Amino acid sequence: MKMPDYFHAIGASLGLAAMFVTAISTTSAATEALSAMSQPAGLHVQMQSELEPLAINQMHSWVIRVQDSQGDPVTDARISVDGGMPAHNHGLATSPQVTENLGEGRYRLEGVRFHMNGEWELRLQIESADVPYRAIFTLTL
Asked: 11, 38, 98, 114: which sits with the fewest CB atoms below 10 Å from its CB?
């Protein structure tokens, strides 16, 4: 069955709109800190990429900031990271590691590389004062 020409025009317009939204998401994810509350509650966690704008297939680092519920820095955190693309059912292409305690509740995460456009999750497991927490960050490239 042949589709009328206006269906093709609508499809092309939707495709352009989808590309525009993706470009906006990429920009905002790269320039703003991502924030999350931990589960269980108790920690406020922020992440900021040191690469702006974020780029596909480029290794980069993030700074993670961890604060308690009063806003005081958590200086004794042990942090591990995993993640991936839930929609594609695969993990990260690299094994990011927290390599440095920068002081004042800040930690450097190195070895992050996103190898394709789409929605990504970075999942942090944080242990502080022998209490396990987790925080999940979602970003779209």
From this structure: 11
* Nearest partner of 59 among 5, 23, 96, 9, judged by Cα: 96
Task: Read off the pTM.
Answer: 0.77
Within 8 A by CB and 6+ apart from 68, the residues are 42, 43, 44, 74
51 SS3 class? coil
Distance CA 103, CA 122 (A): 22
Dump pLDDT digits (tens) for 98-117: 999 999 999 999 999 999 99
132: Cβ–Cβ under 8 A, 6 or more apart, which residues? 125, 126
| Per-residue CA distances from 123 to 10, 12, 24, 111 (Å) | 38, 36, 23, 14
Helix (H) or strand (E) holding 16: helix 5-31
Q: pLDDT tens digit string along 66-78?
A: 999 999 999 999 9
- 104: its two tokens: 């004042």
Which amino acid does the sequence have at 131? V
Amino acid identity of 98?
Answer: V
